[in-house]
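Ligand: biotin. Inputs:
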Amino acid sequence: MQIGQKIIHLESVDSTNNYVANLIQRSEISHGTVILADEQFAGKGQRGAEWHVNAGENLTFSFLLENVNLSVSQQFYLTQVVSLSLISLLKKLKLTAQIKWPNDIYVKGSKIAGVLIENQVSNGMVNKSIIGIGLNVNQQSFEGFNATSLTLELGQSFHLKEVLFSFIHSFNEHWMAFNNETKQVIKNEYLTHLLNYEKTAKYIDETGEFEGKITGVTEAGQLELLVGSEIKNYDIKGIQFIL
Ligand code: BTN
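Predicted complex:
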């Protein structure tokens, strides 16, 4: 089922993900509703980080996905579908982007979008999923951050709602395709766009800096790295990329 039939546009909110969670608690939101905010005063990033961007210049939005029909061990497919929807949207704008595992979107070595997915689980199944996206659109400087925006890459400004509609279209296509295809198709597409896939690069884990080669991701979403002659699996807290 499609998303984006209903869009609620807020001037200011703590976090659009929290806003969706509150509406779920009050049973006041249905599948596919998008919450868009001009400003978030407590925007959330991955690993407990903050998501802080200039008000009114970027896309910060969340939507509710119901009937996800994935087991908890398969929830990483959602990450893949969302990441690939962003990659396609950027491709339509003539930007080549890559996915820095698990779901950061990078253009030429700088981050252009981030994704925060918060799943509600019951009986081992993902019941509802809150998908939050921050896409840098018109912001022209990101002091202290290795970040970029559509404007910085393409030298023009964009109408935020048009970019949002384009994302909604892209997500609807990918979500429908995912539900009709084998899961391997999405995984292959994800790997094709994965930064450093099958390349030797530097990383940091609890033992320090090392060289490794990404050989894949597990169904649960762990990163598989070939280090020396050994395949090591990492979760998000266990590894840092050196870019
Ligand atoms: C990350 O890369 O750390 C994830 C960033 C996700 C930010 C978006 S902005 C809209 C939604 N609401 C939030 O509080 N976070 C996500």
